[in-house]
Amino acid sequence: EASEALPSRIDTTTMGQFLEVSQDKLTARYGGEAAHSNDVGAAQGDCCEPRRAALYYYELRVINAGRDGAIAIGFSQEGARLTRQPGWDPNSYGYHGDDGRKFHNNGTGEPYGPHFGAGDVVGAGINTADRTIFFTRNGVDLGVAFEGVRSNLRPSFGLHSKDEEVRVNFGQEPFMYDVDAAVRRSRERLAARVATFAAN
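and the corresponding structure tokens:
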């Protein structure tokens, strides 16, 4: 059985025009003016989350939080507007560093976790069995942010103030978060649900 493709680099063919991306397609810097809500520099990974994995996860290391720390991490579907932060539109989900809020289909968001900035490592994960999204900060799971999420999501991030810079870890380096333990917990939850269903 052929293994599924995993996101491995930033998709430079679709990314927002305000991003400057390194040659290895893993580091991105904001090069716009951040003058209005539609000049975000957003990008996606080069393919969707794998459908057959129990859990998909990636991380961003914040190299420079820029002027405002307006950095977002999350997921979005193909065709999402990449001049907007993840979470502002119906087909995207995001956790934002400047206010620690989570966003889906609105620009106001809801309280979720701590702010994040330079030196922090933030992560985003999808539990494929129960279609939930969670985020992490410096290896700590911040809990479920969204339930019943859409499928065919790509890892996505957005930058929106001068000099912001991030490095994406799609798994080419060890994660700060213990993904293996999270996968085990996800499988145990799924097995318990199946057992409950079978008993009824």
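(Above: one complete record from the training split.) Residues 179-199 form the longest helix (21 residues).
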